Amino acid sequence: MEKLKPKLFSVRKGYTKEQFIKDIISGIIVAIIALPLSIALALASGVTPEKGIYTAIAGGFVISFLGGSRVQIAGPTAAFATIVAGIVAKDGLEGLIVATLMAGIMLVLMGLCRMGTLIRFIPYPITTGFTAGIAVTIFIGQIKDFLGLTITSKEPIIETIDKVKYDILFIHTLNWQALLVGIVSLAILIVWPKVSKTIPGSLIAVIVGILMVKCLDLKANTIGDLYTISNKMPSVMLPKINFKMIQSQFSNAFTIAILAGIESLLSCVVADSMINSKHRSNMELVAQGAGNIASALFGGIPATGAIARTAANIKNGGRTPIAGMVHSVVLLAILVVLMPYATLIPMATIAAILFEVAYNMSGWRKFVQLLKTSPKCDIIILVATFLLTIFFDLVIAIEVGMLLAAFLFMKRMSEVTEVEGWIYPEDDDDDPDSISLRKVPDHTLVYEISGPMFFGVADKLLDIVPDHNDRCLILRMRSVGAIDATAMHSLEMLYEECRRKQVTMLLSHVNEQPLKIMTKAGFVEKLGEDHFCSHIDDALAHAKRLIV
Asked: Where are the extended beta strands (E) located within 285-384?
């Protein structure tokens, strides 16, 4: 069983001075990358800029300290932007803190209950669909600032469709100077990686954007024009929690927990492939939970493992959790010393950075590939999750996506489970277990069941109808790996029908799980242990003796 032990305590052995220096350098570089992203994602989430940095400081430090990965870097990510913005607009910061605290507790419990491996049961079309949907909502949400639109509304504009509607209604307020800043910033983000892999393009875009507004005296909104930024150290914030608030935030907390679990473990898998390591999924969930609790208490937003920042950490030589902890400490220093200068960053530059984030997270190539190559059921799940994320919200998208996936999975399973009576073929069969090599006694029915017996196919058992000439019914169950309570009930009903018609029921080759369920249900005792045969030949011989 996987150990619940932080990787930090496992990497101490053999830790060298050279690696310590590499971890420090990598932590500093990742902090520089995380700074503009944390501010941008905080604004996209509907909170003040410093709260994104609080998240990377408190959540990032705790997740690195307790994490199950050697190199995971945590902080605010784009996946949470839309759901956080919705919570803040509807329930305020207190609602967000409660939802994040609850999500943290859920994640800790998931890790302690060893549920790290269960995340893989979230179907790939669902994760691809809502990730692409989030990317679209982030992109649409930044059009206003990129174009420099002046939008007035009596109520907060939360829904994606409403944002599109207001962008169109107020397109006449387009600010060409803000648009110029946005275009230049976006161009830098696209071109800069070809110039340097070390210095992040987002940092260069921020510097150029500030210089354009200040030196060219461009009339474009900056963060300082719209928000008051604090450079105070994060302090503990205890919300007033009551049962009604817990009840109202439960679905939001569940969504945050699932999202954090999926994204962090996906990031761990990517990191493992890059450094040839193996993360501890359950410990990572505990760390994610503790990190989100810390982030909420210090005024931050939901945190999770960030794939881009984790990859940057690896590329710059980080190989232990020390790098992630250094990243958080450096951000704390930047918050205290340099945060006042963040007021100079143009909103159009922030929008350009988020455009790039949205593009990178959209996974549009994977999306198109799934549309081209997947079965129809998976395409339905993919498109439904994608559209529901855009037109409604992430909670509904995941809930409906999971329900669709479950129903379509059951449909598939019901199609592969067969209950067929034996019919002698005309040609010889090479299968040594084939019916063609066996003599079935007179007045005996033999049915072969293939596939799992569950509630979706339980009614197929009731299609077996012995008539008054039949004396024995054999159910061959060598291909039945599992049975549930509904199918067990149908089997008991079939047995009662056989008993009423004085037909003896025999079961052949019952596997371990079905036999265990039958024993617990009292069916083995009811039918009689001698009516359970290990092989079809034994069942046929027993049937012959009963009839004679």
From this structure: 304-305
